[in-house]
Each structure stands twice: as C-alpha cells, then as structure tokens.
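Need residues for this backbone.
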C-alpha cells in the first residue's frame, strides 16, 4: 500500500479492547489501558469498555470519594499516554458534576481530553440498579465538566469529527432502548458509533446482543464498535463475559469469543466512503435526517500524523464480494437465490399461461444453471419436464467435450432434447453476405450467435413456448453478448447473477442430486473453461481455443470492479487500490490496471445492450436492469473515469 492511499480511500482502523479489570484498582486498570494503547498505535480509534478505569461491578464503592478522585488521576495518566498515539481513545469512568455522578465515556486524542459523553439511559430493573449511583445523561447537553485542570465539553450531544471520521458515543443500555441515541447521532452525521458496555451474560442474551449490534449498524448505516467488560469483573451475582465486535452496515465484521481468558483486542479496517455512498443512495435515510429535531455539537480535532500514517497495515478486502467465503452462508445464499429464480419464473409462466420453455444448451455454466432452474420450477409447478425443450446447436468451433456434456445433461434431466447443428446454415449465410469463412472476425462469431438465437426463437413460436435466456450479470456489464443474439430472450433468468457466483450455484445442484452421473456431468461443466466457442482451434484440434477470460479479462476481477462501481459508486482509483489489496497474491498491479481500464471502456460503451435487455429477477444488491436499478444513457462518456486511471503508473513504487 502506497503512502496516502489508506486515508484517501476512506479507510480507518478501529480497535475494540477488553482489558483485564482489577475492581477498584485504578492504577492497575490504567496501566492495562495504556499498555493496549501502546500496542495499537496503527489504529485510528481504540475503544474500551464501560467504567474501564474503575471496573463496572463496584456496587456502592462507586460513591467513595477516593475512588472518584483516583479515577480522575487515571484519566490524566491516559491523557499523557495518548500524546504518543494518533488514535481517538474512548474509556469509561465515573465523572462528578454538580453533586451528581455520571457513568461516562471520556475521549482522548494527541494528549488532550476531547470531551465527555454521559450514559443517556440508566437501567434500574432486574439485576441492574445503576440509578442508585448514576444520573441519566439524556438531557445533559451543551455543557462542560472539569477533569483535573481541564475543562472539556460534556453532554450526550457531542460528535467528534476529524476528516471522514464523525464519531458518536453511547453506553451499554443506550443500545437496548426503543430509540437509541445512536439513531439521532447517525442522523446528525455520525458514521462511527462507539458503545462502551458491561453487559452480563444469560442464556440466549449473546445472540440477541449480536443482533442488536448488527441491526443498529444497518439502521444507522454506520460502523458500530462495541466493547464490553470481561475478566476481573465481579461474579457475586452476575457473569460478565467480555465481548467486543465491529459491525458495518448490518454485518458483524469481526468479534471476540465469549469469556476470553486473556486481554483481547479485535481490530478491523472499515470503509467510511462506503457508508457515505449508502447514505446518499438510500434517500429515506436522508428524509429522516432532514426531520431530525435534535442539534449536536461537533468537537473537531486534527490528526497531526495523518500525512505520515503507517500505510503498511494490511487491509482485509473480500476479493469475491458476490460470494460469501463461509460455506454455510454461501449455501444459504445459493438456496435463496434459486428460490427467487424459481418463483420468478413460475410467476411469469403462470401469468402468460405457458407450460413450455426453450433453452439453448451449450454445455457451459450459464445455460446449465438456467436449465437446472427451469427443471426445478417445472417440478414445483407440477408440470412435466418434457415441456422444457433443450436445444444444443453445435457450430463451427463446438468441442466434443461441451457437446457431450450438453447432451448428457439434457438426457439425465429428462427434458425434451434436440440437436440442431448450425454449421451449414452459417456457411450459407457467409455466402449470402460475402463473408470469408477464414476471416474469424466479429461477423464470423456473431453470425453463429444470431443463428442460434433465430433457431430457439422460431422453435419457441412453433411449440407455443418462450425462450429462457441464459446470459448473466457479468456478461451484461461487459457487453459480452451478441446484440440481437444471445443478448435477447423472453425472460433472462440469470440477469442479476455474476459469473463468480454461477459456478457455486451449479455446484449447489450437484451436491444435492441423488443421480451420480448427473453430479459428474455438472462438476465437469463447472471445471470447463468459460468460452463462447465461436472460433475453432487450429489444425482440427478438438480443444477449446477461445477462452473468454483470455480475451476480456478474469471474471473475478471484473465482478470485483462491478460490485464496487454499482454498489458504492467508488472511484477508479479507489477500486484500483482495493483490487491491489484483494488480489495482491494473485495479480500484479499492471494486470489489475489493464483490466480495470478494459472494464470501464466496455461498461460505458455497451450500455445500449442493457437498455433493451429482457425482464429478469433481481437476486442481490447489484443489478443492471434499465427498469429498476441502473439507468444510464447509452452515449455517456467514459473519458473522465479513464483519465483518473491514466494518472496511475502501476509499475511505480511511490506516487
């Protein structure tokens, strides 16, 4: 990672810590906090638990003046230690003001106390009786408090702002109330919420707590960091497990184990530009923001070391954003996607009173998935699979491998299987338009694609059916389809499924079929190189000569680019940076740069194919339907996007 890229790309690093606690021993607790600060100097934010300076389960010891005085001394020590850190640091402590004690978060930065945020809602039910000691902070606004010789902002209305970071704070119970303070903070602009907690453990509570954290980060469209007290808290009547988590937009990015035996720190890089993009995209968030009656005070601070930030820290970026890395989650997604496809197709067939489908079956991934979905849909509707007419159309470059796989699969699935070779028809067409058959240009290739489309379209008219399209989202993004050829159908069942995900959907079917032969064919299709098979190999070789990814680039790169362009509106430089990190062990910078340029050129120039694409069901957050998610003029210029990439020298080591 080159200097400046980390912050240029809106990334920041957050740590949520669970230190050891010695109840009432402020010196020991302060030393543990400082030790964690010193070992996490590459972070932008370090979060500690509720009352971490003193301990949470102190009971009436909270009222002891010695404890309260020593807590202030401990905060002064942390302030001094923060001078050697560039992070904003949030610790929990009891704070006195006007003969009242507030359960508070104290925020430090670069040797200063930025402000103090009191806990808004004080629980006084079941095992909790905090009102015995603490005053609610919900109505404390626009005030100040003295900590030693420092008079600092004090209130529940503070937002701490530096560059892209806008930090709001709530404490434990605040998250559990009907409308958490973080909701108001987010609507006022906070994109990072810190929760200092000391939540006890009971059966089922941990799952509920995780759900609260993830859901609040989703509702607030924010980063939500949570740190709860653990080892050392009293077990007189409660079990305080220790738990920390960092969530972003509804997903728990990282979390600690319950009941950690050691001091624990979880860290994660988060992308604040993604948060901003989501807030812009989802207009209802801004509708609520404009109606927000609360007013907040910004505490601005400068990151003095921003220019020299250590960019050597690795960034955890999913190289396959459409494909969950966890097998269980991936299988759940596949099951859900297939259910969407099947119910969407069933609705279309029912609406038009149709019980016949025509599919061009090539032996490739896309047509295989469309065929499997069609079979599952017909089974669900109680219609004979014989109503599915699969037509394989070997052409001038079809290999025996894909031809045999297509034919075997159709037979094994029990559909109506037809083979119509297109070679003679295409050769006649070449004569009609005076095309040299030895010139393997776009005319040579597209003539075959259009001949196949003409056959399945006319055949569907003949039997009173419809053509089920097989093209996928990745092909639509790149325009890797023949206009009025495989670009066209009556219903595009794969229209919002990216290429990187399709192979897993086919594997999902393979894992669940009881027919071993069918499973073997499906696995062979998954392992076959992706190819349109429109250009023959030399000297009569029966191998696949035309590999799509050699021509247009690796689909995993293009799907990565597509996701960040459509989902977050990321700039070319941002995508280039993210791709370098995500694929650093697979592709060099020059390869990533080359195919990113190719992506933008094709994405802009091929919009005309998407403007008239067939209907098809949306299955994920990214879709190119001109009727739904993506409206773009066909004559838009890619020049500005490409110029930004021209500024990058992928071979240089420093900018």
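Answer:
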């Amino acid at each position: 990672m080159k200097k400046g890229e980390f912050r240029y790309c809106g990334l920041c690093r957050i740590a949520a810590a669970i230190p050891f606690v010695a109840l009432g021993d402020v010196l020991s607790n302060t030393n543990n906090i400082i030790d964690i600060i010193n070992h996490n100097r590459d972070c932008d934010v370090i979060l500690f638990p509720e009352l971490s300076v003193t301990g949470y389960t102190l009971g009436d010891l909270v009222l002891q003046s010695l404890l309260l005085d020593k807590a202030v001394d401990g905060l002064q020590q942390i302030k001094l230690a923060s001078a050697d850190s560039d992070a904003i640091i949030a610790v929990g402590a009891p704070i006195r003001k006007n003969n009242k004690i507030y359960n508070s978060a104290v925020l430090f930065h670069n040797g200063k106390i930025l402000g103090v945020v009191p806990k808004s809602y004080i629980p006084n039910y079941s095992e909790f009786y905090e009102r015995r000691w603490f005053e609610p902070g919900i109505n404390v606004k626009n005030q100040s408090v003295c900590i030693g010789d420092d008079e600092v902002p004090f209130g529940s209305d503070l937002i701490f702002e530096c560059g892209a970071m806008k930090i709001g704070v709530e404490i434990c119970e605040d998250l559990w109330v009907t409308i958490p303070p973080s909701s108001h903070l987010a609507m006022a602009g906070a994109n990072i919420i810190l929760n200092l907690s000391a939540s006890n453990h009971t059966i089922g509570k941990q799952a509920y707590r995780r759900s609260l954290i993830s859901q609040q980060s989703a509702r607030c469209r924010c980063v939500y960091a949570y740190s709860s007290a653990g080892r050392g808290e009293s077990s007189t009547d409660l079990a305080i497990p220790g738990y920390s988590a960092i969530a972003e937009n509804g997903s728990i990015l990282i979390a600690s184990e319950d009941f950690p035996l050691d001091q624990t720190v979880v860290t994660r890089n988060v992308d604040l530009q993604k948060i901003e993009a989501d807030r812009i995209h989802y207009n209802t968030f801004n509708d609520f923001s404009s109606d927000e009656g609360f007013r907040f005070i910004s505490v601005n601070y400068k990151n003095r070391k921003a220019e020299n930030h250590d960019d050597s820290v690795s960034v955890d970026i999913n190289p396959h954003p459409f494909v969950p890395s966890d097998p269980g989650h991936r299988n759940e997604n596949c099951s859900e996607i297939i259910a969407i496809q099947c119910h969407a197709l069933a609705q279309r067939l029912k609406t038009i009173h149709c019980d016949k489908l025509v599919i061009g079956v090539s032996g490739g991934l896309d047509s295989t998935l469309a065929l499997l979905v069609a079979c599952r849909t017909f089974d669900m509707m109680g219609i004979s699979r014989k109503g599915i007419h699969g037509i394989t159309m070997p052409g001038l470059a079809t290999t025996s491998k894909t031809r045999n796989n297509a034919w075997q699969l159709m037979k094994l699935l029990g559909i109506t299987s037809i083979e119509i070779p297109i070679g003679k028809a295409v050769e006649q067409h070449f004569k009609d338009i005076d095309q040299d058959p030895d010139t393997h240009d776009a005319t040579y290739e597209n003539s075959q694609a259009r001949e196949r489309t003409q056959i399945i379209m006319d055949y569907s008219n003949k039997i009173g059916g419809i053509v089920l399209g097989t093209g996928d989202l990745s092909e639509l993004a790149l325009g890797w389809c023949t206009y009025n050829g495989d670009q066209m159908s009556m219903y595009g069942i794969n229209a919002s499924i990216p290429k990187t995900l399709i192979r897993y959907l086919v594997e999902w079917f393979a894992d669940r079929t009881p027919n071993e032969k069918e499973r073997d064919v499906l696995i062979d299709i998954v392992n076959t190189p992706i190819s349109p098979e429109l250009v023959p190999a030399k000297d009569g070789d029966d191998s696949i000569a035309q590999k799509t990814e050699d021509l247009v680039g690796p689909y995993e790169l293009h799907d990565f680019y597509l996701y960040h362009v459509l989902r977050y509106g990321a700039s070319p430089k941002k995508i280039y940076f993210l791709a370098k990190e995500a694929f650093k062990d697979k592709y060099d910078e020059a390869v990533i740069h080359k195919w990113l340029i190719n992506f933008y050129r094709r994405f802009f120039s091929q919009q005309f194919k998407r403007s008239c694409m067939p209907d098809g069901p949306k299955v994920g957050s990214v879709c190119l339907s001109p009727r739904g998610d993506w409206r773009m003029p066909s004559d838009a210029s890619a020049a500005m996007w490409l110029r930004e990439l021209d500024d990058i020298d992928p071979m240089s080591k420093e900018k």
